[in-house]
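Researcher: We're teaching a course module on how sequence relates to structure. For the next exercise, students receive a sequence and then see the predicted structure as C-alpha cells, so they can try to spot secondary structure elements on their own. Here is the exercise chain.
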Amino acid sequence: MKKTLTRIVSVLISLCLLISTVAVSGSGVVTDKHTGSDIPGIYLTGTGGWIHEFHEDGSTTKVFPVDISSDQLTALVEENIDVFAEAFFTQEWGEFCDVLYEIVTELYGTFALDEKGNPRNNSGITWKWNPDTLGDRRNKYGNYDIQSYTFQYDWRLDPYRIADDLHRYIEDVMAATGATEVALVGRCLGVNITAAYMDKYNAEHVSDYIAYSGAHNGADIVSKIFSGQMNLEADGIERFLYDKNLLGEGSLYNDLLNSFVTVFNKTYGLDIACWAVNNVYEDIYLDIVPRILIETYASLPGYWSMVSVEDYELAKEVVFHGADKDKYADFIKIIDNYHYNVTAEMEEDFKRYEEMGVNIFNVTKYGYQATPISDKEYNRTLSDGIVSVELSSDGATAAPVGKTFNKRYIEAAKTAGTDKYISPDKQIDASTALFPERTWFVKNVKHAEFPVSMDLLFGEMIRNDGYTVNSDPDYPQYMVFNENPERIEPMTEENNVTESWSEVTFFNALRVLFRTINELIKQAIMAKANPEV
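Model: And here is the predicted structure for the students to work with:
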C-alpha cells in the first residue's frame, strides 16, 4: 500500500518535474573566424531560469527550480498512508485528492503567479542589464557571436509583457553597437517571446530570425497535461526510460531499471500497471488536476503560450473547471490575447515577416520518444523529447517514432518531386514544412541541450544572404549530432540510427537484467567483506 501511494505521489510530482523540463540547459560559446556575423545576435533561452523571492533586507530565496529530496517524499507518503488506504478500498477519492492537492501545491506553488498573472511573493529573476555597459561585443575576428547578447527574462510572465523589455534591450544593443538591425535567436519558449515581439512591434529592427527547437506552435507535454489528455502507455514509457537514462548512463542501477522495465513490459506487466493508474486518473482527474494546475504551472501565461491550437480550448475547460470565471477573467484575457494573436496566426505572420525581408530559419531536433503521458497515437510522435517534429518545424511530416515511411509514401513523394526533402533515415519529410528550404533537422540532440557546434550553423545563416539547406554541403537539411568529438555532421545511410532502444529485445534485456543483478550482489558481498573500502 505504501509503495502504491509512493508511486502515485511520485507520478504527479514527476509530471511537475517533466513540465519544468521544457527548461533548457546552458551552453558554451565557440569562437573562430567562421562564427558569428557583423549583425549583433540576441539570444533568448527557454524556460527554467532561477526564480528568487526578494526580501526587504536585500536577501533572496530561490523558489525555482524546486528541490525535493527522497526523504521529503517518503515523509509525505508516511504521513498520508491512511488517507490513501481508505480511498483505495472504498474508491472514494475526495479526501485523497484534497491531501494530494496540498502536497503538490505546497511544493510547487512557491513560484506561481496570481489570478492577474503577477508574482505573488515579490519574486522574479536577478538578471538586469545596464545600457551603459553593454558595449560592442565583437570577437577578435570582428564578428558578433551568436550569444554575445543574451536576453534573460521571467519566463512565467505574459510574452507580450516580456516583449516590451526585449524591445528596450534591442534598442540598447543597437545604441551600443551602432547597428541598425539585429538577428533574433530563440530557443524553446524563447521563440514564443520573440514571436510576441515580432507581432507587437511588427518585426522592427529584425534582419534574421532563427527558431531553434521552438515551442511556438505548442510544447506537447504542456498541451496534453493542461488539456487533461493524460494516459500512460507501456511501450512509450520503455522507450522514454532508455532515452532519459534517469539513473545515469552506463551505471548498473540504470541498466537494472531499463532492463527490468523492458522485461516487465514484454510480459505485459507494465500494461497492467498503466491500466490501473489510468483508471484511477480517469476517476479523479477533474477533482485534482485543475486545482493543482491553476496553483502551479497553469498560473503562468508563459506556459499557456506553449499550448497548441489543437488543445487550447479544451485546456481552458479543464484548467478552469469549477473555478470562479470572474476571478480569472483578467488572466484568461491575457492568455487569449497571446493565443489568438500569435499562436493561432503564427503561419500567416511568419509569411508576412518573410515578405517584409526578414530571413526566417528553423532548426528542429529529433530522435526521441515524446514524454509518454497521452494516448497511443501521441506516444508514437517523433520528437526531441518535449516538442514534436511537426510543431517545432512548422509542419514537417514525421513517421511514428521507431518507424519509417513506407514504400508507398516514398513512391508518392518521387512522383510529386518532393522526395529530395525526405531524410536519409526515412523518418521526416520536410516538404510540408512552412519554409522547407530553410528548415534544418538535427538528430540525436535532446530538447534541453544546445551543443556549441550549433553556433557555427547559426552564424552561417545570419552571415550569408539567401542561405538555404542547399547552400553548404557541411550543413545540409538533415544532420546528426556526435558527442565525441562534439560536432554536427551530414546524415548518411550509415550514421542515421541513433535511438538507444532501437535494438532492445526481450532476451537481450533479460540477459542484462540477470548480469546486472549478479554484479550488484557481488558488489554488496564485497562491501560487506571490506566495510572500510
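Model: If you want an answer key for the exercise: The mean pLDDT is 89. The CA atoms of residues 1 and 85 lie 7 Å apart.
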